[in-house]
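User: I'm putting together notes for a lab meeting next week and I want to include a structural view of one of the chains we've been expressing. I don't have a solved structure, so I'd like a prediction I can at least talk through. The sequence is below, exactly as it appears in our construct file.
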Amino acid sequence: MTSLTEVYEGTEREVTSLRRLYAGTALVLLGAALAIVAVLVATTDLFAGLAIGVVDWGIADQFVVVQVAGVLAGLGVPAALVGVFIVLPAGPRVRAAAAISASLCLLGVSLFWYAYPENWRYGSDQLTLEVSAIYLLGLFTAVWCLFTAVVNFKTRNDPGGMLEMNVTRKNKTVLEVEDSDDSTGGLGGIGFLGSTPDGDVETQTNTDAESGDAGSVGAASGAGTSSGGPIADAAGPATSDGGSAAADITSPLDGGADGAEIVGSPGSASEAEPADRYCGNCRHFEYARSSSGMVPYCTRHETAMDDMDACDEWVPNRNRD
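Assistant: Thanks for the context. Below is the predicted structure for the 321-residue chain, given as structure tokens.
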């Protein structure tokens, strides 16, 4: 099993075990050696004499040289291909096809050993075409299986356009709005089917457009006051942590209206002083960018702060215009 260290360092093996790697490498080297020896037997007197003197073949010496060289070359090519298949990751179907093709090559070599030279071109019962067709069929099938395995392996490691990355940007939200109006599109969620949601919430369908002018917002608010009385224009300024103050939110049951509304609290509640006094809820508190990043900054004293303890000039930030 591949360790996490190998994965992160990029040194993981591409085969499942070292035994497969060694076996495949040995077969490739064996196939290359058999092909080289076949060429030397067919072209040099030294290796030809060694092949002739091994045993008494019972045929002419020139036929012995061709027969031995042909058998060695015929065995070397499929051996090298099988070695590549062992090392290269491939599916079971590709491996089965490769095994069948190698078997056809071995059958062709055996038929060549049987047919040469009596039934090879010059004899009465010629098997040249049959033997050649069987061997070439197995060879071409093995090459095609090797091509398929290489292409699939490359596609698995480099999928190209098949990889997709979804990035969620800061301060952007995707909402599913259930539209109560039957006259508008009622299918799907935002970004697929249906109408664009009202309001100033950024979604997939209105991030590039304006969230609506003040008139449209006022009209929507006026429609809600027909049954529940007047409401405030806004919910109040945001606190230092990004939300609304707890005193600015009231229950819809308090007003006795049929619909739910978020209304502003009375002015007396907004003038109440927060229970905690610290620089985070002071109107002079801001964040400033420095060489070391964002740091807390006091606009009253015009200096960066080391702590959040409130000073004597602390003012609630909700009184900020």
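A couple of points you could mention at the meeting. Residues 4-160 form one domain. The beta strands are 285-290, 293-298, 303-304.

User: Perfect, that's what I needed.
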